[in-house]
Amino acid sequence: MVVNLSIKLRLVGIGARMYDAALENVKKFDKKVDEDLLKAIVKTYRLVLSKKDAKHVACGQESELATVKKNFIVKKLGFTDSDKADKAIAEVCAEMKSDKFKSRATFYYLLTKKLNKVDIFV
Question: Which CATH number, 1.25.40.20, 2.60.40.2470, 3.40.47.10, 1.10.238.120, labels domain 2-120?
Fold first, then answer.
């Protein structure tokens, strides 16, 4: 039981650090951060965000953007308007252009707000 508790506490600590990093990044793009939404995204995608090769979105890779569209926008958000989804992705890529490494948490946060799907998480 003690081992399980220590693992749980460590995961909470990692999640808190991920959230703090995501919060600082999101503040660059949204001055009025919806912290409940961001917490939910970080909690939901904690495992993905912990992987070095998956914690960023590569806007220059069409296959990456297709994956974001299919797995996040369509499957998670339930958004099926393909043209609006593509437009939202392009807008978020443009908005985050100043970041060489685009945080997946921030990218998903901005997409969720842009597509008015906050209620999926909060």
Answer: 1.10.238.120
